[in-house]
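Run log // design_07
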């Protein structure tokens, strides 16, 4: 195909889009001063549309479920293209709670999902600990959600970079000043021209395109990475999504007995400093679920900026001829990477997009 496409943003969304477009034969350039960093580098890597489900967000659940169905094939193709494992983890997810109110919330979630035709299995405290012996005595109930998966975000980013390079994607490591239809203005005074511009700059997207002002904002989230130490009980094999007296916390396994804890969530603009209160709260709540982490090594504390939207759905579609947006994925950027890349490819190629993505049209917010 003769079209030239410039993708603004080198996170998991931008790299997935670039790889898919290049594989389809488009000439693709990615503009990002530090691709593979930012919130994609900090993320927990959960692929969990079911345990993230919330009444009133049925469109988001449908889009997330559609993307989750694509993940095994997406990961297999990426493995082949990159020549390296993208880190898909298929052990499933347990949602757990520690008090009566948490248990009631899990029951409500199970009833809501059942009403939508999505099956989950409710578990007693004993059944939960039989599946994951590292869970502590405070855990009183749970849900088994075997189809909610996870991926090692850093292995994924490395694989996407390798696949992009292998398919001829060009990288331009310069900061962007403004994104326009068929043109990107750089801070060094130069421009990058194309037939189509795809804006996929996460939380910074609104800063690069005035049309998105008020539609995408940064939502700060802190995350911790732990390493199992000799003599301590091994971490859970499944992702654990916990409620600790109403406060959410998740624990996502990594290769070599690593564990990611997350995540705080608050409005703090573009601040990415880690604060001690966030670290304290995450460790306190996670230790109540898995007491053994008190003996683990704390190897990293980091903060990222989720690209929040008004209704938690991303913005996927044309802003005007020559300018596409693929941003505003909030907590679900890694989950939604396969379906987002597919939608952008179909739009650039002039094809009809998957029905689940139609609710994410950016025109809904105007």
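design_07 sequence
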């Amino acid at each position: 195909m003769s079209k030239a496409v410039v993708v603004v943003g080198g996170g998991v969304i931008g790299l997935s889009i670039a790889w898919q477009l290049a594989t389809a034969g488009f000439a693709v350039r990615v503009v990002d001063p530090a691709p593979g960093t930012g919130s994609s580098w900090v993320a927990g890597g959960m692929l969990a549309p079911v345990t993230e489900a919330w009444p009133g967000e049925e469109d988001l659940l449908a889009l997330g479920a559609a993307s989750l169905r694509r993940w095994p094939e997406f990961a297999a193709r990426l493995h082949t293209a990159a020549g390296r494992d993208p880190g898909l983890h298929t052990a499933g997810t347990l949602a757990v709670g520690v008090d009566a109110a948490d248990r009631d919330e899990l029951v409500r979630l199970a009833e809501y999902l059942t009403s939508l035709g999505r099956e989950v299995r409710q578990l007693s405290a004993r059944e939960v600990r039989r599946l994951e012996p590292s869970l502590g005595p405070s855990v009183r109930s749970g849900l088994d959600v075997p189809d909610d998966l996870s991926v090692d975000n850093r292995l994924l980013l490395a694989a996407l970079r390798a696949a992009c390079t292998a398919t001829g994607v060009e990288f331009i490591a310069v900061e962007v000043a403004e994104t326009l239809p068929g043109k990107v203005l750089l801070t060094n005074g130069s421009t990058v021209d194309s037939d189509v511009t795809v804006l996929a700059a996460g939380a910074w997207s609104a800063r690069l395109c005035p049309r998105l002002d008020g539609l995408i904002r940064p939502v700060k989230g802190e995350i911790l990475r732990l390493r199992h130490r000799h003599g301590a009980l091994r971490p859970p094999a499944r992702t654990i999504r916990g409620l600790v007296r109403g406060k959410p916390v998740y624990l996502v396994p990594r290769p070599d007995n690593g564990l990611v804890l997350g995540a705080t969530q608050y409005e703090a603009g573009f601040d990415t400093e880690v604060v001690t209160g966030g670290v304290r709260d995450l460790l306190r709540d996670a230790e109540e679920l898995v007491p053994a982490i008190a003996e683990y090594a704390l190897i990293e504390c980091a903060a990222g900026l989720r690209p929040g939207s008004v209704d938690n759905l991303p913005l996927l579609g044309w802003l005007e001829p020559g300018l596409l947006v693929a941003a505003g994925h909030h907590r679900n950027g890694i989950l939604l990477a396969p379906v987002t890349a597919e939608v952008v490819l179909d739009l650039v190629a002039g094809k009809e997009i998957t029905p689940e993505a139609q609710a994410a049209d950016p025109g809904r917010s105007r």
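The first strand starts at residue 4 and ends at 8.
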